[in-house]
Structures are given as structure tokens and as C-alpha cells.
Amino acid sequence: MVEHPLVDAWLAARDKGMRPLQIPGHKYRYTGADPALGSDRLAPLIRDDVSLQGGADDNHYSGRVLERSEALWAASVRADHARFLVGGSSQGNIAAITAVGGPGVAVALDRTSHRSALAGLVVSGSMPTWVQPTLHPELGLPLGVDPSALVGLAPEVVAVFVTTPTYVGTLADVAALASVVHEADRVLVVDQAWGAHLFFLERRGAFANGADVAITSVHKALMGYTQTAVVAVSGARVGADRLDRAVDLTATTSPSATLMASIDATRAVMDEMGAAELERAIASVAQMRARLRQVPGLVVVEEAEIGVACDPLKLTLWLPRTGVDGVGLADLLWQQGNGVEAADADSVVMTMSILDEHEFCLRTADMLVSLLERLRGEPRDPAPSAHWQVVPEVVVSPREAFFAPRRRIPLREAVGEISAEQFCPYPPGVPLLAPGERVTVQIVEDIEQAGRVGRVAYSSDPTLSSIEVIA
């Protein structure tokens, strides 16, 4: 029988009828039949909330239910030690970079990395050496970091951080990357946020291919609550104690047993029936791709088309030859309740999962075919997204820039200055400009263009007309 100790503890706490003389402030009053203050609005939201401390476990964690659940996850994904997170893979990335880096320590990072990797650089004080991904020559999409890009890294680089799957679903060769990294006696950290399901496919997960540290979101392609994630280590290059210190630095002291139990439950379900369900889902998405390949001019991003392996549950369409605008297509899909992961003029990215039934997948493929024909226009030249192409000039560390005195000036007058903040199109959350980097004419143009077609997040001026630079 598959174990799930945190799930069991959560269920027991939920049914116990507790009236604690401690937090949480809602006192579990919204779980019962008796009305409590604001029940009409709060009961549907709070009724399943159980804390870990003083809820699913006592104040001393003497039941060790979280510890045992984390050990079961580690065993399932071929890791040695795992930590459950309620701050998403963002928290995992910050903790991982803090665990492997340090003040002034050089870390090489894939430039398609999420903005949380920059937060990890600020927290740890590490100095980035940015590694450029290979871009498809026509599609302009990232194909992942090629192992050859890691040859010749400066000797002071102690760790390499790569993102795979990429946001568009392309997969790096983690085994080859691990070989190069370990040959140079460095640590390989893999941000597998978009690929939790890969851990449950034979030889596809980061640890099965030699990663030392891996981060994944349990909510993106599996069934965990939103915000749930896991960071784990394998082997002796990064000690469990070092990871624990980094996680504890970034973690809440009042963790939700509800969120964490959903990680435990997801792992138990995947251990029990995940292989069969993944096989079914992968076959369904393969049929979607086959149907969409019949659309004249449409490029379905997959290995046969672009020459690198792709996430079997990610569906990315490249549109310029059809004349269809990706943003317009995404708007139509959103209006009818089928929001996509991301869209720009050239592409639309969709995440499928094992909860998408076969019939739904086929209906969705037919719907996409119909919409593409409805929106079809004259073929046009591609306009690749700038965030995949940035080659930054790092002047000072992100930490130094983050804490430096700053002044605000018009964005168009900032060329040559050093940014004290970041400009980050979201989605996908990959920065155009980060703290400590030189502002260039091209970056200014890219920021303005990104603001015209979507949301640029995390900058201090939402109008994008000004910027804070190092004073």
C-alpha cells in the first residue's frame, strides 16, 4: 500500500473538531455546521485550511509527518533529501542558489532562467556568469543550454544553474550537461519547475540524469495546490544541511499542512498510477500534435521539427507562416474559458496534464484548427521575443545593485547607466534587464515594445517611462 503520512495526519486533524488555544485565528470554526462570523464568505475559502504546527502535527513536530513525507518524495524522484515548499519554485530557486553560492561566489546561469534566480543572487550575494541558450535560427525559441556552452567557464564558477524544460517546452540534455559540469568539479542545479511529471517518467527526471540539485513546481503540471513546490539534492556535492539552512531562511514559520499534504498526495498518486496516466496523457497530446500538423503553415514545436527533445505535455505553436497573431488567438481562447500559458505575436504556449481527458484533448485540437483558419492571414516575417535573446553586460552583482543608492531618471535617458531594478515580461518571467546590468539602446527598445504587447512586471514604474539606476 502506498504511504502518505502527511495526508493521513491532515485528514485526522480535519476530523478532530479542534478548538485550539493558539493560531490559526479562524480556530477551525469554518469546518463545522455551526455558523461562524463571516461564514457566507469565508467558509468556502477557509474550510480546508489546516496548519502543520498545532494542526496536522503538534508544536514540536513529534509526529514527523512532514519529514517522512519529504523522504518518500525524495525516494520517488531518486534524490537523497527533499524539502516541501509553499512559496513555489521561486522559493526553491532562491534556496538552491543560496545553498550553492555565497557572497562574491561565481555561479553560471542560463539566461532563460526565471526572475527568482535573480532573487537568489540578491539573497546569496553570488555573482552571475550568464550562459546563452541555443536559439532556433528561424523560430527564435530557446532550445536549452548546449553542453558546449559550459566549456571554458572561468575557474571561479562553482555551480551551473540551467532551466529545463524551458517555458516553451524544449529540453536540455541534462546527462550531457552533468558530465561536463562534474568533470570540472562543479555543481549542477536544474530548475525543473515546469517538469514535475518528468520525475515519474523513466530516465527523464533531473536526478536520473545526474543533477545535484533540482527544483520543481508540484502545481504546474501535476496536481498540487497552487504555490506548492519541492527542492531536493542528490549525491555529496551539496549537503542536506546546507540545503536545509537555505530553505529555512526563505520559509514561513507557519506552514500550511493543506498545501504540503497536496504534495504528499500527488506523490502517492503518481507512485501508484502515474506511469499509466502519463502514458495516456502523452498519447493524447501526441494526437493533438498530429491533428495540428495538418494545418497549412503551422509549426508544431516538437523534436522532429526543431531537432531537440521536447516536454511531451507542452504544446507550443509557432504562427508566422499562418499569418495568425498569437496574442489575438490567446484572447479568443481566454474569452471562452481556455486560457493559455503564454502568447506573443509568433507563438502560443499551452500546458497539458494528466487531468486533461483524451476527449478534451481532441476537442481542443479541433477547436484550435477552427480558430486558426478563422484568423488566418498573409504569411509574415517572425518577430522573435526579445527576452530569449538578451546578452547582458553585468557591471556589479545583483545584490550590490539591489542595495545601492539609486535615482530615478527617464528610461530613454538611461542608456549607459547601471540598472538598480528589473524589467520582466510576464509571462514568461524572464528578465529583459536585471539589477547590476548596463542599460543599452536595444534594451530600452525591447522594454518599450514588451510594454506595448503585454505586462512588464516588477519594475518600480508600471508606465515604463522611468527607471531607477545606481546613483
Structural features, described:
- This protein is of the alpha/beta class.
- It folds into three domains: 194 residues, Type I PLP-dependent aspartate aminotransferase-like (Major domain) (Aspartate Aminotransferase, domain 2); 101 residues, Aspartate Aminotransferase, domain 1 (Alpha-Beta Complex), CATH 3.90.1150.10; 85 residues, Alpha-Beta Complex (Ornithine Decarboxylase, Chain A, domain 4).
- The chain is 34% helix and 14% strand.
- It has 13 helices and 15 strands.
- It has a seven-stranded mixed sheet with strand order 1-7-6-5-4-2-3, sandwiched between helices.
- Helix 1 packs across helix 8.
- The radius of gyration is 23 Å and the shape is globular.
- It starts with a helix and ends with a strand.
- The model has no long low-confidence stretch (mean pLDDT 96).
Characteristic key phrases:
13 helices, 4-stranded antiparallel beta sheet, Aspartate Aminotransferase, domain 1, Aspartate Aminotransferase, domain 2, 3 domains, Ornithine Decarboxylase, Chain A, domain 4, 7-stranded mixed beta sheet, 471 residues, alpha/beta, 15 strands
CATH superfamily label of the largest domain: Type I PLP-dependent aspartate aminotransferase-like (Major domain)
Which structural class best describes the helix and strand composition?
alpha/beta
**Kindly, what is the distance between the CA atoms of the first and last residues, rounded to a whole number of angstroms?**
62 Å
Order of helices and strands: HHHEHEHEEHEEEHHEHEHEEHHEEHEE
In the CATH hierarchy, what is the class of the largest domain?
Alpha Beta
Sum up the overall morphology in one term: globular
Helix content: 25-40%
Number of strands: 15
Enumerate the spans where pLDDT stays under 50 for 5 or more consecutive residues: none
Major sheet attributes: 7 strands, mixed
- Mean pLDDT across all amino acids: 96
Strand order of the largest sheet: 1-7-6-5-4-2-3
